[in-house]
Amino acid sequence: MNILKLALVGILTTGLLVHAQDDGEDEVFELSPFAVTAADDVGYRATTTLAGSRVRSNIGDLGASIAVITEEFMEDTGATDGESLLSFVGSMEVGGVLGNFSNSDGGNGTVESRVNPQRGQRVRGLVSANLTRDYFQTDIPFDSYNTSRVTINRGPNSILFGLGSPGGVINNGLKRAYIGQDTNEFSVRFGHRGSTRGTFDIGRTVIDDRLAIRIAGLMEETKYKQDPAFTEDERFYAAWDLTLSKNENSNFLGRTSMRGSFETGEINSNPPDVIPPSDLYSSWWNGLGTQEDVNRILSVPGTDLNDINNGALTQAQVRSVLDSGIETIPDGVLSDTYTRDDFIATEGQFVPRTTIDRFKWGNPNKDDPTMGGRNSQVSRHPYFLYPAISFNSHTAQTPGWDDPLLANALDGYGIQGIMARWRPRGFNTQDMQWTSAATGGTGFTPASIRNRDVFDYHNNLWMGTTNNVNTEFDMNQVFFVQEFWDGNAGLEVAMDSQTRSQYEFTPFDTGNDKAINLEITTHQSPGDSDFDSFADRLANENLGRPVVFWGDNWERFRTNEQDTVRATAFASLDFADVIKNDRWGKILGKHTVTGLYEERENVNLTRQYRGSWWADNSKHPGEAAISNGLSDNFRRIVKTQVFVGPDARGFTSADQVRIDGGITTPFPKVGDEYGIWYFDNAEKTDKQAIWRIIQNENPANYSKSVLESEAFSLQSTFLNGNIVALYAERSDTQESWLAPNPGGYGAAGRDGATRLDLPGTNEIDGTYNTDLMYFEDAPSAINSGDTSTKSLVVKFPEELLFELPFGMDLQAHWYEADSFQPAGVSVNLLNQPLASPLGTTKEQGIQMTLFEGKLSIRYNDFETALANDRTNLGGGLGQVAGRIGFYLDRITSAENDTSTNLFPDGYVPDPNVTGDYADFFANRGNYTATPGSDAAMTPNTSPDNRQRISGTGADLIGAATWDAYYAAIVNAVVPSLQTINNHRVETLESGERVDLRDPQPGLNSTRDFVATGKEVDIVGQVTKNLTISANIAKQKTVTSNTGPVAIGLANEQAALLKRPLGDFSLWDLRGSPFQRESDQIGQRFENQVLRPMTLAKALDGTQLPEQREWRINVSARYDFLEGAFKNLSVGGSLRYQDTVAGGYPNLLDDSGNVIPDVANPWMGPDDISGDAFVRYRRKIMNDKVDWSIQLNARNLYRKSGDEDIPIAFNPDGSTTFVRIPVEQQWFLTNTFSF
C-alpha cells in the first residue's frame, strides 16, 4: 500500500512540474564555493569536501582523516542509513542487526541502538561521532533518498565543531536543486521478508537561469528476522535554488543566490534486539555448575567462598574444594562446637529444584533450618513490596488468576495484583521468591540464554509487541550566498531550524527486566490465613513457570528544538594572479582566509510518566502501614509480571524450559482499576481493595543552551601547491540553563504555585509540579573553550625532481586538532565544577594516488584522546549521598510506623513501656536482655542483630531518642558532603517525619580514554571496469584515571560509618529496621557504593567493550562495458573483524585488591561477513527511460553462520553476553530515471 501511495504522489508531482521542463539540453549548473556536489565524485571516490575549512577544498590538501561515502557506493551496497552503511567504513562501529558491534556497553541492553539508532555508533573504539546535516548539528537520522554523500571526519576538527565529540563528525550532505538540471527518478525495493521501500526524486528548473526546485519522498517498511520487529519510515523533502542576481556586468559582485530545503518525516518502530535475555533460571537445576565450574570460579584471584551464595554450592562441592586446597577455612572459624563438617554444611546448602515455603521464613518455632527452602537456592524477591499486575500467559489480554478465591474476590471483581511482601504479627518479612543466577560474586554477571530451543531469539523478538518508538521531525534550511571577485571571495548566511519529538516505551529491554526467572514460591502471600506458619490456601498456580517482570513502567517523551544562524565568509589571494613573475607567484602560492560566526539555541525537554497506585475507597497506598511512599516512590509504582511458559518442575534439565513466545500482553494504564490483596502493617492483617492507577510525572529534564562560536582559518599553498598548510582557531561559549529542581516539600514555582510532593495524603502528592518548568534569567552554567586545528600536507615535487611512475602522486600529512564538549551544569561530589570533556588527536601518514588520480591509497597513524569523560561510576556515585538519605528514610519510616518501637523487644525493664530511654544508657547495669530475645542479639552474637524483627538499633549506638538516631547518621556524613547535601529530618503538618536533602544538579565524575591505531583507505578505479573501496583499521582504546575525587570520598564516608558509637557503629546496624530486613548499613554501603565504584575503577587500563584490534572492509564492482554482458554490473563486499576483547582474568595487586589482567584479555572469535549484488541497466520506452534492476544479498556469507557471537566474559573466562549474528537480507530494487 505504501508503494502505491508513493507512486501516486510521484506521478501527480511530475504532472504538476512537467510543464516547466525544457526540451533542450541541460545547462551546466553553477556551484557555490560553500557547497560540494555529487558531480565532483568519481565512482566511489570523492575529490572535494567542506570538512577542511567550511569552503570547498580538495580532500588531498587536508591532513584530517576524512572518508566520503558517495551516492554510487550507497547504491551498489544497498545501504540507506547509518546502520546499513557505517560498517563499511574504517574505524567505525555501528549497532543493530546489520552492525558490527552490539553497542551494549557491557550489559544485556541495547537501548541506544534501538531507540536512537543514529547514535548507536562508535569511532576509533572511543565514542560516537557528532551528527550533522550540511554541518548543522542534528539528531535526525539520515537516509539515502535525499543524501548526496556522507562525510565522516574521524577525530576532532575544530573548524567543523570546536565543541563536539572527539569521535568526529558524520555529515549528511543533502541533495540540492540545481538550476539547469531536470531529473526524474523512481525506485521500488522489495525485501524477502516482505519489506518494501519506495522513493521518488524529481528536479525541475522552474524559471530559466533563476529558480530550480527538487522534491523527494520515501515510504519504507522494514521487517526483520525477529518477528514482529519492524520499522516504518515516511518522509518528504523539498529543496530550492534561486538566483537573485547574476551580476554579470560587475567586476566586484558575483552571483547572488539563495537556496534552501525542508524535510518532514515520521519513523515508527518496534525495533529488533541483538542480545538475548539473561538466564536467571538454570541455577535452579545446576547451582553454580559442575565441580569443574566451581573449581574454575574459585581459582579466580580474589574470589572465595564468601563471594558465593550458600545456596549455590552442594556440600560435596565445598568438601572437594577444601580437599584439593583450592579453598581453605579462615583462621578462627572452627571451634569445639563448630567443626569442619559444620562449615561445609553452612557453605554448601544447594538442593536442586527446591521450591520455597515463604511462611517458614523467620517463623517463631524456628523448626526449619532451611527457612522453607530459602537457604537451599539462589533466589531473589522480584518486586519487593508492591503488587505486580499478573498475566498468566505471554498473550493474555486480561490479568488475574484462575484460583476461585482470587477470581471471585471483591464481589466478583477479582484480584489482579497481590502484594509480594508480608510482615504478619512480628514475624520476619515474608517475600515471594523467584530464581536468580548463581555467580562468582563481584565482577561476575549472569549469562545470556544460549539455547534457542528454550526461546528462538533469532527468529522472535523477546519484547514481542510491547515496545514502541515513534519519532517525528521537521527541518528547514535557508542559505543566502553572495560571491565576490569572480569567486575569490564570498559570504554565506545560513539559518537552520529543526524540531524532533520522540515517544519511547520499551519494557523488557535491559537489566533484570530482560531476564527469565522461575516462580518457585509455593503459595501466594495470603496463603497462611491464620498466621500459624503453615499454608492453608492459595497454592501458587504458577509455581515452576518461567516469568518476567517489568519494573520501570516509564513512558518517555522527548522534544528537541534547535535554531541556528551561521555566517561564513572567505577570501582567496593567489599570488600567481597578482605577480607578473610566474616563478614567484607559484612559490608564494594561494591563501584562503575563512571566518565563521554561529549562534545556536537548543531547547530540550524530557518528560517521564508512569502509573502509581491510589485507592478511592480504602486506605491510600502511600501510608506507612502499607507501602510508605509518595506517588513517585518505587514501592507505589505499578509493576507487571508475565508468565511466559509451562511449569518446569518436572524437567530434569534447564534445557527443557520452554518460552511460549514474545510478549504481547497489554500494560496497565492510568485510570485502570484493579483488585489488590495487600497487608496492613498497622492492623497486622491482610485486606482487599480496588486500587486505581494515577499518573506520576517524574521531574522534567528541561534544559536550554545557547552556543556562540567564532572561528578563523588560513589555508595556504606554497611551491606550486606542493606544500599545503592549514591553521584554524575557534572560540566557543555556551550558556546553559536547567529548570529549577528545589529540594524539600512544598517548594514553589515561579508564580508561587506549590510543588506537588506533599506527604502522600492527596492523590496529586508526589507528582512533579509543571510550574517548575521555566528557566531563570541567569544561566546555570557558562562553558567556554578555545580550540585549534593544524594541518600540513607536503607533496612530492615532480616538476623539481622527477616524474613518478604509474601516474602516481605522493604526499605526506601531519594533523593535530582538539575539541571540547560543554559540560553544562556538571560538578563532582564536592560541588566543584568539572572541566569540560576535551578531545585531542595527533595524526600523520602518507598518501599516494595512481593512474592519474583514479586510485587513492592513504595511510594514517593516530592517537585520539578524550579527557574528562563523564561517568556515574557504575551507579555508585549518586549513592554516596543517596545511601545516607536511604538510612534516614528507613528510620523516619520506623518512627512513622506506630508498631515499630525505638528499642527492640526483650529488655527488662522495657524502655519501650517506661519511655525512659535515657535511663537505659545512664544505668545500663539495671537492664537485662531476655535470652533469645531481639534485645539479646548484637553484632557479636549468633544469631546477631540482623535477625531482629522488632525495634531499631538505637540501643546499640547510644541513641535515646529518634532525633538522636537521626543526629548519629547525619554526624557520620563527611563534613564537606553534609555542607552540600544538608541531610536533615523535618516534621510535616500531619506530624509525619520526612528526610530531606538538597539536590545537587549535574553530579558527575570523570574518566579518560586514549585510542591509538592505524588506518589505510583505498578507493577509486583500478581499471575502467573495476571500482574498489577498501579500508584497514587497527585500534586500541583504553580507560584511565577513573573517579579521581569520588572514590576517595566514598572510602572516607565508609570509614565514618564504621566509627564507633559506644561498643558498635552505624556500619553494624540493620539498614532497614522498618522493613525487617536483615542486611546491615555497612553491607548496603558496600554493595551500593564501594563495590560498583571499585569495579568502575578496575576498568582503568582495560579496553572499551567489544574492542577488535583489526577490521578490514573491501567493496568492489565490475562493470561489463561491452560484449554479451554489456550494461551488467556485479560486485560485493567482505567485512573482516579480528577477535574481540570481552573481559579479563583477575589479578591481585600488592595491597590485595582485585585488578584486571590487562595483558591477557579473554577473546571472542573473529568474524567475516560478505555481500553480493548484480545489476542490469538498459533503456526502455523508446529509449526515454533508464531502467535498472538490482539484486542485493546482504550478509550472504557469515563465518559465524547461525552461531551466536560472544561479546563479554566473566573473570573465569565463561561467556556472559552474546549477540546474534548479523541478519541476512535479500532485496530487489527497480529504478526508473528520465
What are the main properties of this structure?
single chain, 1234 residues, mainly beta, 22-stranded antiparallel β-barrel, 19 helices, 56 strands, 37% strand
What does it look like?
- This protein has 1234 residues and is mainly beta.
- Among the domains are: 278-313 and 349-466 and 506-557 and 606-697, no CATH class; 875-1003 and 1048-1092, no CATH class.
- The protein has 19 helices and 56 strands.
- It has a 22-stranded antiparallel barrel. A five-stranded mixed beta sheet has the order 3-8-9-6-7. A three-stranded antiparallel beta sheet has the order 45-48-51, with no helix packed on it.
- The two termini are 24 Å apart.
Helical proportion? 10-25%
- Look at the helices and sheets and give the structural class: mainly beta
- Seen as an oligomer or otherwise, the chain set is single chain
Cα-to-Cα separation, first versus last residue: 24 Å
DSSP, total strands: 56
Runs with pLDDT <50, length 5+? 6-28, 753-757
By DSSP (H or I, 4+ residues per run), the number of helices equals: 19
Beta-strand residue percentage? 35-45%
Rg computed from alpha carbons, rounded to a whole number of angstroms: 34 Å
Sketch the major β-sheet: 22 strands, antiparallel, barrel
Mean pLDDT: 89
Based on CA inertia axes, which overall geometry fits? elongated
Write the layout of secondary structure elements.
Elements: H1 2-17, E1 48-49, E2 57-58, E3 65-70, H2 71-77, H3 82-85, E4 92-94, H4 111-115, E5 121-123, E6 130-133, E7 136-137, E8 147-154, E9 168-174, E10 183-191, E11 196-207, E12 211-223, E13 230-245, E14 253-270, E15 278-279, H5 283-286, H6 291-298, H7 315-323, H8 340-347, E16 379-380, E17 387-391, H9 404-407, E18 417-419, E19 421-422, E20 430-431, E21 434-435, E22 468-484, E23 489-505, E24 515-518, E25 546-550, E26 555-574, H10 575-578, H11 582-588, E27 590-615, E28 639-643, E29 673-680, E30 685-697, E31 701-718, E32 723-738, E33 781-795, E34 809-820, E35 838-850, E36 855-871, H12 876-896, E37 907-908, H13 911-914, H14 917-922, E38 928-929, H15 954-957, H16 962-971, H17 975-981, E39 984-987, E40 993-996, E41 1005-1021, E42 1026-1040, H18 1046-1057, E43 1060-1061, E44 1064-1065, H19 1081-1098, E45 1107-1108, E46 1110-1119, E47 1128-1137, E48 1140-1143, E49 1146-1148, E50 1154-1156, E51 1162-1164, E52 1167-1180, E53 1185-1198, E54 1205-1206, E55 1218-1219, E56 1225-1233
Parallel strand pairs: 6-9, 15-24, 17-28, 18-29
Antiparallel strand pairs: 1-2, 3-8, 4-5, 6-7, 8-9, 10-11, 10-56, 11-12, 12-13, 13-14, 14-22, 16-21, 17-18, 19-20, 22-23, 23-26, 24-25, 25-28, 26-27, 27-30, 27-31, 29-30, 31-32, 32-33, 33-34, 34-35, 35-36, 36-41, 37-38, 39-40, 41-42, 42-46, 43-44, 45-48, 46-47, 47-52, 48-51, 49-50, 52-53, 53-56, ...
Helix pairs in contact: 7-8, 12-16, 12-19, 18-19
